[in-house]
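Hypothesis: this fold can be encoded by more than one sequence.
Test: take the structure tokens below, design a sequence, compare later.
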């Protein structure tokens, strides 16, 4: 037991208030598409002034939730790491589905629920279904808070031109379950999930839709996933 519960309460409460404030919550929600945004873009997404957005973003950076990168004349903001993105996605999973979908304003509901990005990995019905097939075939082995890649699973991922050795060496968790807010089940996250998404995009199995988290499954993707994963999409 920690002998300083008041310290825990203080920091936990501060973090909860940071994430829970309306404008900051909207900015964090929009950052879940994995892209970096300027303060102006995030201000627009939260319907607040640039000055107000800058203040909110400074607080999120100071708390270690976001980081900024300067490119030319612009400063871009993104999640500090994938653990923060996972926490935000898990919070979204606590909301009723109808509320979550309303938050994806301007996006096609059926498409968002079927396939979308969650930070840098595949989510939605497609992401959950693919992960389920990987588990069923024992290409992935589920543990409490992580996935283990089996020998057969390693061969499968390497057949998709994914360098498993390099993926394991990334400074982040290798593979873990991320709770999907629309499916209420887990999809594959971590370095392995990101590598899988990149591979699917490079092979034109899926395509990102501009200014949206929605993912489009191509005809080639349906055929290849059917052959390789035995998935009827």
């Amino acid at each position: 037991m920690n002998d300083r519960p008041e310290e825990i309460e203080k920091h936990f409460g501060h973090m909860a208030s940071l994430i829970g404030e309306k404008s900051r919550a909207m900015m964090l929600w929009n950052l879940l598409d994995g892209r970096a945004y300027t303060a102006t873009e995030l201000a627009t997404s939260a319907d607040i002034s640039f000055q107000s957005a800058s203040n909110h973003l400074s607080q999120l950076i100071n708390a270690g939730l976001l980081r900024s990168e300067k490119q030319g004349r612009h400063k871009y903001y993104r999640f500090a790491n994938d653990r923060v993105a996972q926490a935000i996605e898990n919070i979204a999973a606590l909301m009723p589905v109808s509320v979550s979908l309303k938050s994806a304003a301007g996006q096609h509901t059926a498409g968002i629920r079927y396939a979308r990005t969650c930070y840098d990995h595949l989510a939605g019905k497609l992401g959950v279904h693919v992960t389920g097939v990987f588990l069923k075939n024992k290409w992935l082995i589920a543990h409490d808070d992580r996935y283990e890649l089996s020998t057969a699973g390693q061969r499968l991922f390497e057949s998709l031109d994914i360098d498993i050795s390099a993926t394991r060496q990334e400074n982040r968790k290798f593979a873990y379950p991320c709770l999907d807010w629309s499916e209420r089940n887990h999809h594959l996250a971590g370095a392995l999930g990101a590598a899988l998404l990149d591979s699917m995009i490079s092979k034109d199995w899926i395509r990102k839709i501009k200014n949206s988290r929605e993912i489009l499954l191509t005809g080639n993707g349906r055929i290849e996933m059917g052959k390789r994963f035995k998935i009827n999409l």
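Residues 5-80 form a domain with the Arc Repressor Mutant, subunit A fold (CATH 1.10.10.10). Residues 5-20 form the longest helix (16 residues).
Hypothesis status: open.
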